Fold these 2 entries.
Entry 1:
Amino acid sequence: MYSRFYRLRQDAAPGPLDSPVSAGGVYDGFAGKLLLADNNLFSVSFGVLPDDPELKLLREPAFFAAAAAQLPAIAAWVDPNRSRPVTDRPLAIGALRNRLRRLVSHDGRPVVHGLHLVGDSLCMTNQVFALGVSLALEQAVIISEALRKYPTDLAAQTLEVDKEVVGRIAPHFEDVVAQDRARTEMWRAAYASSGREPDLSGIHAATVSDLDRRLTRQQLLRELRRAG
Ligand SMILES: Cc1cc2nc3c(=O)[nH]c(=O)nc-3n(C[C@H](O)[C@H](O)[C@H](O)COP(=O)(O)OP(=O)(O)OC[C@H]3O[C@@H](n4cnc5c(N)ncnc54)[C@H](O)[C@@H]3O)c2cc1C
């Protein structure tokens, strides 16, 4: 993912949003999203396949600016009359991994006593979904409930926590995994064949409503080459 922060110019009005805090969405071959921050700041981020060599151009400020100007939802925000970048250049982040750790073995026994995981050490989800803090708070509730229920029985605590993690945390984790997989397949198809219709069958309704097929990877690349 490539991101850059911008600040609105003094007295400049904010651009349009399509949710209370964001604009943009998932496109055919990449994602482009604006997120509001405080103090007149906002970020613009592009999500791309890690193995898409051409879209690595987005690391360069000029290409990043050209791409942002192509996104209907974001173009108005990054107009130089309205805002200016405050980060020197686009920053890259990789390894947006999904991971769920359980402390109970396949045959149902605790693998450790007296240790409970919370936060990313228990469940890490692709940051794009912004679930990490909510899931961590839910885990804290799960652990405190288990400690109250079994104050001295360490094995029972671990089994109780695991049962609740499977019931209350794992469904969110699995949803993110399924959406990541479906989007990756769609982007791979876009990369392999620009003319093919994306297969959206595995993508969650919320993401589908975000999907804007008007701009394809091929069109974006054309604009980037023009900018170069
Ligand atoms: C780019 C990005 C955007 C995100 N956006 C959102 C969002 O919008 N909404 C949301 O809910 N979540 C978001 N998340 C996820 C969220 O930040 C994490 O889920 C959350 O911070 C996890 O909290 P944590 O305490 O488990 O781990 P962390 O916040 O990673 O804290 C772990 C701490 O342990 C320290 N540490 C590590 N090793 C050691 C050691 N050996 N000794 C001592 N200290 C150590 C680290 O320095 C760190 O301070 C985002 C994450 C990223 C990376």
Entry 2:
Amino acid sequence: MPGQPPAPGGAPAAPAGAELPLGVAPSPLALLLLGRDRDLASERGVDCPGDLPAASDPALADRARRARAALGDRAFVLGHHYQRDEVIEFADVTGDSFKLAQQAAARPEAEYVVFCGVHFMAESADILTSPSQQVVLPDLAAGCSMADMAALGQVEDAWEVLAEAGLADSTVPVAYMNSSAAIKAFTGRNGGTICTSSNADRSLRWAFERGERVLFLPDQHLGRNTAVLQLGLSLEDCVVYNPHKPGGGVTVEQLRAAKMILWRGHCSVHGRFSKDNVDDVRARIPGVNVLVHPECRFDVVTAADSVGSTEHIIRTLEAAPAGSSWAVGTELNLVSRLAKAHPDKQIVFLDKTVCYCSTMNRIDLPHLVWALESLVEGRMVNRIVVDGDTAHWAKVALERMLALPGSGTTRG
Ligand code: SF4
């Protein structure tokens, strides 16, 4: 399509929100940047053909229930922990990205996997499910700003920089689960593996058995926190590769000396928390325990009492004694839900200002109703398809991770 922007992560682009008869292979999809108002030439993902129900429709929840019941076992609805309550209510299973992809793969009888999460998660589900299963993302504008910070072309350029410096052969790429299928495939092609936020240490150890240094994509914070706090490397062992600067903004000598080459990417939600937030909450709530996600910055993580994946955060709060106080540094939908689920504990959000994941929040009840009702009516919408070659190499990288000891049950 002329003038169509490339999808984030270098994935091929094509019309979004297109209606297709069931069983008809769709064109590749485009993800769309937010904030482009009514420019439909660049905002196709926000356009939902047919009738997107009004958010004010009081019958929305009933419509979702009816459509869900009509689909029965033909559909499987997955809800990421960071989704809104109005959406989570309709999820058959909730979890983090990796658990959800595994769950989707474990339901081969489900014809449709409706993924209430963001684009890279739906891609992982498509890679791990059988070819007969079709993955639907209710709003194609639900991308991930972190995943978008590492486009395939940029990463290939960086690899070329390493190759010209004679360093590519001794460098092992490790990609965080929160990356596009194209980046996962790059990692698979180049002898690397994937990691989640709970097995990043094992993935890095695996990589250091095979090379002298790691190219860690795309979250610099998870890479740095894991390398320094879990593997015992120093901050000086890490360099940040900035894809927007020639040569990554680092010298060949710096690359050669580095053990960790950290891609300059971050989560726009977890990257907001600051050391000041930690100091402030400790001053306000005596005895508070600070619990944060490893996508937070190094100074936040080192100032916290406990660091771990979303599942670690959930388990820690479940096991916490009544009366204890917690300040939690992760996405606000999840923190609010945990606070409601544990009224015997004081659970507050680490930041004083609102910090939802704006792209996760793109999936709302109107989009879920639209997607479910479309499937009931025999219209496939917003299908996420990863092309065969990309899926193959991404799966190679994912399977290397799954082969790590204990990784069959890890969460990311
Ligand atoms: S919370 Fe961060 S990593 Fe997760 S989807 Fe949102 S921007 Fe991406």
